[in-house]
Amino acid sequence: MNHRILFDYYEDDEIDEAVIALQQRPRIFYERVNYLELYDNHDFISRFRTSKETFRTLLRLIEADISPPSQRNRAILAPCKLYMMLRYLATGSFLLTVADFTGVSESSACRYIHQVCRAIARHRSKYIYFPKNAVDMRKVVSGFYNCSRFPRVDTVHYDCPCRRIKSTQ
Questions:
Q1: By CB neighbour count within 10 A (0-12 exposed, 13-18 middle, 19+ buried), where does 71 fall?
Q2: DSSP of 74-136, one letter per residue?
Q3: I want to staple 62 with a disulfide (CB 3.0 to 4.6 A). Which of 53, 55, 119, 154 is the partner?
Q4: Is residue 41 within a helix (H) or strand (E), and if so which, with residue range?
Q5: What is the pLDDT confidence band of residue 134, given thresholds at 50, 70 and 90?
């Protein structure tokens, strides 16, 4: 009975306004930074674990897949999405940290990182493959030997921990 008296005292509109005021947080818009211009190649590599040229090549490859449909409403552009994904993978950091780094919300950072990873994964068959015949296998073996003087290397296991291995020669 007491509850009914309490609710009758307030107008429904006043209650709705109070609830809405508690739920809404002010939106903060951060200025987006062009890290290609901000950092030299050495600093860029130390932050994103890739060179500027590799960044540009990767961006050209996936830009059509990750660009926003329009430039309205402060849309996140493709380079910013790629910065986020590279920073996330390079540092092994939390989504919130990467979101703060690029000036977006945590949920947006999660969505964009997922979008960029999927766009890159669509191109995996062009770059990740096992040699199909003996001629291709010999090319891979000679490539590893020419690169690091490792004899008879035919595959690289990317799912194991990295270990420094010395060449026998």
A1: exposed
A2: TPPPHHHHHHHHHHHHHHT--HHHHHHHHTS-HHHHHHHHHHHHHHHHTTHHHH-----SHHH
A3: 119
A4: helix 41-48
A5: confident
Side chain identity at residue 21, one-letter code: A
Statement: residue 99 has pLDDT above 70: yes
**Cβ within 8 Å of residue 86, ≥6 positions away:** 48, 49, 50, 55
Which contiguous run of DSSP H or E holds residue 19?
helix 12-23
H helix or E strand, kind and range, residue 37 = helix 35-38
- Cα dihedral 116, 119, 123, 127, rounded to 10, equals 10
Q: Is the pLDDT of residue 157 over 70?
A: no
For residue 84, what are the CA distances in angstroms to 8, 74, 79? 51, 16, 9
Count of residues making up the chain:
169
| One-letter-per-residue 3-state SS of 51-83 | CHHHHHHHHHHHHHHHCCCCCCCCCCCHHHHHH
b/e map 78-91, b = 16+ CB within 10 Å: bbbbbbbbbbbbee
